[in-house]
Amino acid sequence: MATSRRNFLRVSTMCALGAGVPAVVASAAKGKSPGLHEIYSIQAFLPYLNSTFFIHGGPLDRVEVVLEKITDLKATKGRKMAGRESFSLLFKERNQGARFGQNTYVIEHSKGEQFTLFIVPVGKHDAGLYEAIITTR
Q: Does the pLDDT at position 30 exceed 80?
């Protein structure tokens, strides 16, 4: 059975969000504001624009990237998505040469916060660009 990328991303995002709900509730109960790994939203990522992240491909393999661009896809597509959010994150490798393929990776902010994203290399092979598309309900 073939699955489209769109359906895969939608289901994966919903699973990730569902897994993060208990953490959000626990953080709210403790009076802490949730972090990136707890809420996937444009507002959660905006403060991290132009900051350093690491993509972990394995125990000894990581690539340093910068969150270069956040695009609100709802605004660009002109779709009506009441109560939903759709956006993309574009990461650029500091030392160019796309080393990771399309897959789900652990992403770590330079301050230590970790979360997982399905990322895809975009552009020319050696461009060092990775994109993640996030759609919420």
A: no
